[in-house]
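# nightly structure sweep
# worker-07 picked up a monomer target from the shared queue
# config: single-sequence mode, recycle default, output format = structure tokens
# input follows
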Amino acid sequence: MLRLSVTLPRHQESSKQPSSGSPNHLCTDRNRLRFLEHSLVYDFNLLTWCSPSHCIWAADNVQLPEKFSVASQYPEQESFFLHVLGVTAPKLRMYITALEQKASDAPAKEDIKQMIRNICQFAPSSEDLYGLLHCKCLPIRRPDGTQDWMDCDGEFAIVDRREYGRLFSGDINTLDFSLEDVHSSETFLCGLGLRKKYLSHLVDTKTNATGSSIDHVITADLRRKAYAICR
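# output follows
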């Protein structure tokens, strides 16, 4: 069993940060350098050692290329990882870059969906997502049941109502998301300008009545009430 001896700086009672030459600051620098040089962060899942430079402070469900998410394995050590080792929480740009990389290499649909959910946590704007407009990160279900990957310019619709999903199933290309996935990813989809592909926006609903006749009394009463409301 490998034992590590690391000297942790004591918390300052004052809210002021120690100066760059203080003993605590020097101790922190030495510890960080030791962990960086010898890759002293252990990944219990992959059974391997990592450098803090390859770590992010995030839960296990957040997987970024060449990064070790340490929060789930070291939940009580947040202060040490963030303030001593200099590990940072992932930023929106990191998630977007990871999505681009994952989409370019035979991605798994569930991995892509998880990355999109991670991006949605930041409430991204259209400007934030601009670089993904031509990224083939959208899983599409074709009428014959096969899956394809398309970017925002692809020919597909997004099922946002259950009845439309049943009605058009097997007839058109659709985003291969469940109704719940569509709703949870709405910030991402709308940020890419895809609201125009929602079936609720594409379908023109009409109601036809057969075997009926106009009731002039009821019609006159409705007109009178409508006039009273609108005037």
